[in-house]
Amino acid sequence: MNFKLLNKEFRLAAHPNLYIFSLMGPLLLVPAYPYTILFLFSCIGNYVNLMYSRETNDIYFTEMLPIKRSDVVKAKWQVLLISQAFMILFSIPFALIHGQVFKTNNVAGIDANVAYYGFGLMILGIFNVFFLTEFFKTAYKAGIAFLMGIIPASLIAIAVEVLVHFPNFAWLDSISGSDQLKQLPILVIGIIFYALMMWVAYKVSIKRFAKVNL
Amino acid sequence: MNLLEVHDLSKKYPNFELKQINFNIPAGKIIGLIGVNGAGKSTILKSILNLVPFETGSIQMFGKEFRDNEVFCKQQLGVVLGGVDFYKEKKLRDITKVTKTFYGNWDQIAFEKYSKMFNLDENKKVKELSFGMRVKYSIAVALSHQAKLLIFDEPTSGLDPVSRDELLEIFLQIVKKGDTSILFSTHITSDLEKSADEIIYIKDGELIKAAPKEEFIESFQYLKDDTDKNDLTLDDIMVRMEGKHYEF
């Protein structure tokens, strides 16, 4: 972590929407709602944030600071990581309250359970790898980078929401203790997948950004 | 000692090419980089700063290879890119607060002195400042971290004559001590007549001539024709070198 760069990111570069879209945890208290949207909101927040960076010439400003060129990528990568980790941690208390309050299933789609967070990490991971690497091809075209990321991310979200309606996968939708224990491997896979995607996003983005004419 | 050495810098674009640029910036000098719009001045400056990657060549700054020592070199470098504004909605105070954390040798007292000297109001947002004030703010920041090399891309082109004169006066003050140099690009030749020690002339991506000002002007006097009574000025030289004849 580079704290000086993070300070710059959050004090100068960040768009307020990044914060708002990272604070969507209370949506888990809506009784019937496609909860995977929370992860897609995080993607939108990060997209708006990067677009704002472009409009404020943040990339130029950062590149002029006494840092390495690759640190420009590192700063944005760290923002993705922190905003998403925060979004998840902030939502967990609401998921727990949800489990206590609603005894019936979420009829709209998957419940806020262990599997939900596993799939959520997959949604974020796939978004990040396409979004960040595509953006740093030009350090300019944020719109196309968002589309490249949000399409596969949405497909996973839709697949998850549909999947839990099939009786065979009812255990994925459950918030009972034993079922959530069964869901644990999905969370582990989600964490590994997210870590792997973030590693690829970091490496490829640095490589691509090194070739960009600012 | 040379603060900057550019060796065989080459860079290819689909429709433009920088061809083997070589020049040095000694300490305590003001160097003007001249050429018409599109000649390659900004590309050279951006290549020096690693904003655009180049194919061949090397950039030595403060005796070290820039690309391998970016952090070290940038600590002692001040840059103002023409027409690029940062964080228009932010106050100068907020930008300064963040910027200074990156510089190990930040001198707050010096910064306050320059801010006062340039009449900078730290509570103003970037968008509320004129172009000249933005340039002055960048200079104040550069001087406050004791930059040894200042690189400006067309700092005077958006300025009124009074501000331009004032800025050139500041340039002369900065280099007076002898350890700091300024490299600035311009297409306004009168800037150079007032302040530059040396001139580097770029045409179509090629370095035509790099020499001390008097020697530079002297070397182009061969362009004189029978109608010229006086020596050619920098303006005349550029017009004759670049001039095209149109027939309609």
Q: Which helices and strands appear, and what pairs or packs with what?
A:
The complex is a heterodimer of chains A (214) and B (248).
Chain A: H1 3-13, H2 16-22, H3 37-55, H4 58-64, H5 69-101, H6 114-138, H7 142-163, H8 177-209
Helix pairs in contact in A: 1-5, 2-3, 2-5, 3-5, 3-6, 3-7, 5-6, 5-8, 6-7, 6-8
Chain B: E1 2-12, E2 17-26, E3 30-34, H1 41-48, E4 56-61, E5 64-65, H2 70-75, E6 77-80, H3 92-99, H4 108-117, H5 131-144, E7 149-153, H6 161-175, E8 181-186, H7 189-195, E9 198-203, E10 206-212, H8 213-219, H9 234-242
Parallel strand pairs in B: 3-8, 3-9, 6-7, 7-8
Antiparallel strand pairs in B: 1-2, 1-4, 4-5, 9-10
Helix pairs in contact in B: 4-5
Number of strands of chain B: 10
Q: Biggest sheet of chain B: strands side by side, in what order?
A: 6-7-8-3-9-10
CATH superfamily of the largest domain in chain B, called what?
Answer: P-loop containing nucleotide triphosphate hydrolases
SSE pattern of chain A, N- to C-terminal: HHHHHHHH
State the low-pLDDT regions of chain B, or none.
Answer: none
Strand count of chain A: 0
The topology string of helices and strands of chain B comes to EEEHEEHEHHHEHEHEEHH
Which architecture of the largest domain in chain B would the CATH scheme give at its second level? 3-Layer(aba) Sandwich
What is the number of independent domains of chain B? Answer: 2
Radius of gyration of chain B: 19 Å
CATH class of the largest domain in chain B: Alpha Beta
- First-residue to last-residue Cα separation of chain B: 53 Å
Biggest interface, chains and residues, is:
A-B, 23 and 29 residues
- Helix/strand-derived category of chain B reads alpha/beta
Helix coverage percent of chain B: 25-40%
Pfam families (chain B): ABC_tran
Protein name (chain B): Abc transporteratp-binding protein
Organism (chain B): Pediococcus argentinicus
GO molecular function (chain B): ATP binding; ATP hydrolysis activity
